[in-house]
Protein: PspA/IM30 family protein
Organism: Bacillus aerolatus
Amino acid sequence: MFQFFKRVRTYVGSELNAALEKAEDPVKMLDQFMREMEMDIRDAEMAVAKQIANEKMLKKKLDDAKSMVEKRQQQAVTALEAGNEDLARRALEDKKVYEGQAESMRTAHAQASQDASVLREKLGEMKQEYEEMRLKKDSLKARAESAKARTKMNRAMSSIGGDESRRGFERMEEKVLRYEAEAETSDDLRSSTRSIDAELDALKTNSAIDEELAALKKKLGKE
């Protein structure tokens, strides 16, 4: 009856890592084990109920036999008082039969009562062990889910820093640097062109001013 519980204790202890290595889902397996334990407990409860019923049946037969012993004893007395010795003898003979039955039922009932007590005790142990396994199962399920989450996160993080991703970032960085260099060169060319235009414009402006200044000096007789 308790071989399965022993198997569960072994599993939730040393065999959890082995289950993980075999790609078995420990959460589903623990749930399955708990369902099987519940079935074992229901079977044990039925066995206990049958044994208790058997004990009660034997107790009733014992009580009936004892009652008949007392009844035949009283009937024998009544028959003797009535002067019917033959009837008294038959009553006493029947009394002996019931005494034998009572003794047999007494032995059977004592054994049945002891068996029922043992079964009730074992059932209590099974339920206690089941409760312990249930609490341990919840803890193991939480640990398994946490381990799977950590594994998934580690895989995701390792893929982020992979060679392919890193090379891709480096290529993009080179492109950005190239774009920036091209933009700076374009700015320099534009500045250079703008500087030449400004100097030429300045020359034109200075020449016009010189001509106007010469004309003004001539007019004033300053030459």
Summary: Residues 8 and 33 are 7 Å apart (CA to CA). The chain has a mean pLDDT of 80. The chain is about 95% helix and 0% strand. Helices lie at 3-13, 16-21, 26-81, 85-160, 163-220.
